[in-house]
Amino acid sequence: MKPLLIAVFFLAVHGLAQEDKALATLRSDAPLKDKADACRLLARVGTSNSVPVLAALLADESLSHMARHALEQIPDPSANAALRDALGKLKGRLLIGVIHSLGVRKDADAVTPLAAFLTDPDPAVAGAAAQALGNIGGHALPLLEKAMATAPPTTQLAVCEGLLRCAESMPGGQAAAVYEKLRNMPDLPHHVRVAALQGLVRCRGPEAVPLLAELVRTETYVPASVAVRMLAEIPGPEATKALLELIGRVKPDTQILLLQTLGDRGDRSASTALVPMARQGSSATRVAAIRTLARLADPGAIPVLCDLAKDPDSAVSTAALAGLTGLPGKAAETAVLGLLDEANATLRIAVIDAIAQRRVPGAIPRLLKVALDPDTRVAIAAFQALGELAEASEIAALVDALVHTRAVSAAENALAAVCARQPDKTFCAERIVDGLKKAQGEPKLALLRLLGTIAGPQALAAVRAAAQEPDPQVRETALRVLCDWPTPEALPDLARLATTAPDPKFRILALRAQLRLIPAQTASDQQKVSQIRDLLPLMDRPEEKRLALAALGGLPTVESLALIRPYLSAEGLKQEASLAAVAVAEKIVSSHPAEVADAIQQIQTANKPLADRVHKLLAQLPQNATETGFVPIFNGKDLSGWDGKPGWWKVEDGALTAESTPDKPCTQANYLIWRGGQPGDFELLVDFKLSLQGNSGIQIRSEERPNWDTFGYQADMTGNGELIGFIYHHSRGLVAGRGEKVVFGPDGSKTTERIGDPAQLLKHFKQGDWNTYRIVCRGSDIALYLNGVLMCQVTDRSKQAAARGIIALQMHPGPPMKVQFKNIRLKQL
Fold first, then answer.
1. Element holding 132 (H helix, E strand)
2. Region class of 137: left (phi > 0), else alpha (psi between -120 and 50), else beta
3. Which residues contact 373 (CB under 8 A, 6 or more apart)?
4. Whole-angstrom Cα distance, residue 683 to residue 491?
5. How far apart, in whole angstroms, are the C-alpha atoms of residue 542 and residue 544?
């Protein structure tokens, strides 16, 4: 005991020290937050010593609410006195706060002074006084009742709330009297009347049943529904009896509410009385009664629900069957199964659905029998339920049912669902193969299709044999199943079909199936590529070639890249080939840089994400890899192999150079021509640099004209960047701008497609510095790259297109300028 006393002593001393510190803060010039924190502390440790200081703060706009909070918690009676004393000194919001605090403290001595405020002209003050008096309780009841008779409308609601609060703290009989008086007052708001009624019901319990029943019978729907809810909460048979008696004496909408309430109560004693309501009356009332019967879960209602499930009113029969379906127990399951013997097909279909919902364990034999029903609608419903409920042990019976039913498609779907759930696919295949031996017509075709979903050696052997049968339908179905086979074990069969099938459509399907299954094998990637290589000569249509390219794109080997490369320039296949090539190249770039470089540099695409992947690949390649096959056509020392107008071209700092000055202006274009040949398909790499005023170009596939002039396509360039990335033609002018793809049709018609943003592309140009043009001429296509980035493309199928021609460098007339070219490399394609 002594240690406990010591602990209490020390706690008291500590509390006093905290109180002194908090009071010192309140008396000081401390910040507002510190003073608010001090009030919070005094709410925990304050004594009568704190009351005068806190009382002085009640008139402080900033701290009044914190001071009241502390005073509300101090147990000493002086706190009450301080709050009462403040009533005559404060107004408005501060006064309302003090009134509220007196209510919180339930100060009986405050009843008389608070009552004076019930008639205050400020409705907020009067309302606060009424609520505070209500919190104080019984002592305030006479004053509140008197105020209720004289209160203006602005404060009447607050006085009602005060009376309700008062009643809550009073003994049952006294409280009931208050609630009764309130309920009988005229013109009360609905929610106050409801609150009074709820209080009265709490006080009287079952004795309130007659009152609530009378309200249900006489009031309009909204107040009647409130009374019904209250009846639902009263335990005991009296409330159930009252609800049942009321059903025949109220309007239909209230009848339904009463029936729902009986279901909420769960009192099975109501079941017998509900049966007549379920059998006759309006459809809506009957349905409500049936639902309530089902919710009560009385086993005695099962025969009634079975009988009602046959009712000609569809709403009634549906509700009865749904209720029966939801009832627990063996008896309900037996009753549901018994309805399968009914003649009404619509009812039987609904019963089958109910059986599936309940997952009735013993339903399978009955469903198998119903699945052979001559009414196809019933049979379909039975198979749908069997698909959900049947297991491996029922597969043989299901196969037999499929062989004999007219609902073959539904039976096939059911078997597929059951087999999909089984881990032992061989067992499933054996049962289906057994059925295949005795099946004919559409059932046989369905079983063949099922074998294709199960797969496995036994299933494949059966389908393979069926593909040789004389019946054309059986043979065609078996061949389609083979072409849709899900596993690589069918590849030998597909290989034979691709070359020997008399019908071209099966050769095509077999090709496609092989392209689907070859990548799924456990063989090495090299073996898979070899198999696809063997298939390529069999493909005449672009559709299969696209599938082959997609398959090769998933096999990251240098062999697959080699197979993809020829299609990079094939019309209609470029995009698929480019995607496949990039996919492979990304995996083998480090091990086969030369092969990757050779393939990637052939890709011309307007697809920005794909182009970005190409640029990323190029950046990973060593420089010597990207130039495999290129041959220098300028020696970096002199003009050997080149021919130009005398006096204009020279070699300066290892670069072919042409320059005009104020003293030596250029008034007519002239060209430095490469005399090494007239290439057709090629790639040309050229480093160039121009002065700011420079204007030049590189002629390709061009025609030589007298006096070192040319005619044809030109990769244009200017030192200020204006014409960087353009393709020009002497007769057509600027053919393709930066960021454009231009196509000339055989009739000379021109179409233009946007493939890039010109301003963004120009950012790759290094003004006043060395840049690199890559020009690719392949067939009718010309592509121009700057520093590895595609600038524009031209496809020329017109009569003006040149298949080959000279390469030449331009000296352009105009203001003084300087242009230089070096590292000129050519690769013939």
1. helix 123-136
2. left
3. 348, 379, 382
4. 42
5. 6
**10 Å Cβ neighbour count for 366?**
17
Find out whether 752 and 742 touch, Cβ atoms under 8 Å.
yes
Helix (H) or strand (E) holding 276: helix 271-279
Q: What does the pLDDT look like over 294-312, one tens digit per residue?
A: 998 889 899 999 999 999 9
What mean pLDDT do residues 382-411 have? 95
Q: Which two three-digit tokens encode residue 472?
A: 């054309």
**What are the start-end ranges of the H helices in 720-818?**
758-762
Q: Return d(Cα 543, Cα 508) in angstroms, integer.
A: 10
> What's the rounded Cα separation, in Å, for the pair 558 and 569?
19
Cβ-based neighbour number of residue 724 at 10 Å: 24
Give dist(CA 444, CA 500) in Å, integer: 25
- What's the predicted TM-score (pTM) here? 0.62
Give which of 52, 121, 61, 142 is closest to 94, Cα–Cα.
Answer: 61
SS3 713: strand
Distance from C-alpha of 718 to C-alpha of 724, rounded to nearest angstrom = 6
Q: How far apart are CA 153 and CA 147, in angstroms?
A: 11
Question: Can you give the pLDDT at residue 257?
Answer: 84
Q: List Cβ neighbours of 173 (8 Å cut-off, separation of 6 or more).
A: 203
Ramachandran region, residue 828 (left: φ > 0; alpha: ψ -120 to 50; beta: rest) = beta
Q: What does the DSSP 8-state code read for residue 455?
A: -
Q: Helix, strand, coil proportions of the chain in percent (round to 5)?
A: 60, 15, 25
The strand pairing partners of 718, in sequence order, are 695
Per-residue pLDDT tens for 533-546?
Answer: 999 999 999 999 99
The structure tokens 């020997």 sit at 500
Site of tokens 């020290």 = 17
Dihedral pair phi/psi, residue 468, rounded to 5°:
-105, 0
Tokens of residue 497, six digits:
């079909």
CA–centroid distance for 268 within its chain = 46
DSSP at 785: E
Residues 72/101, Cβ–Cβ less than 8 Å: yes
Tokens of 600: 């990637």
Non-local CB neighbours of 49 within 8 Å, separated by 6+ positions: 19, 23
CA distance 549 to 733: 39
For residue 678, count CB atoms less than 10 angstroms from its CB and return exposed for 0-12, middle for 13-18, buried for 19 or more.
middle
